[in-house]
Structure formats: C-alpha cells, structure tokens
Fold this sequence. Notes:
Strand order of the largest sheet: 1-2
CATH class: Mainly Alpha
Shape: globular
Number of helices: 3
Largest sheet: 2 strands, antiparallel
CATH architecture: Orthogonal Bundle
Distance between the termini: 20 Å
Number of strands: 2
Structural class: alpha+beta
Radius of gyration: 10 Å
Order of helices and strands: HHHEE
CATH superfamily: Winged helix-like DNA-binding domain superfamily/Winged helix DNA-binding domain
Amino acid sequence: xxxxxxxxxxxxxxxxxxxxxxxxxxxxxxxxxxxxxxxxxxxxxxxxxxxxxxxxxx
Length: 58
C-alpha cells in the first residue's frame, strides 16, 4: 500500500491537518507530506479548507 492510498483511507474517515496525516501515515518529513498532498489536490483526489486548515478526501 502506498502513502497515497494510506492518506486517502485516513482522510476518508475524517478531515485532518498535515501533522495528523503525518502521524497516521507515518511520513517523517512535512515537506514530503505536503508535496504529496498538493499533487493529490491537483489530481482532484483531496481538497484543502483554507479557513480551517484541514485536508479532506473528495
């Protein structure tokens, strides 16, 4: 299972902040996690709520 799949599963349960995603998916570097989330956002798999700071699955 890839990090992308793990993120989608975690976000399917509830919206999470970046540090919560890093803990659940076991990604050590924030930059790696954010770049992956941004790629997923560009693909339309996840969305970011800029007002609350939460990522959630589409």
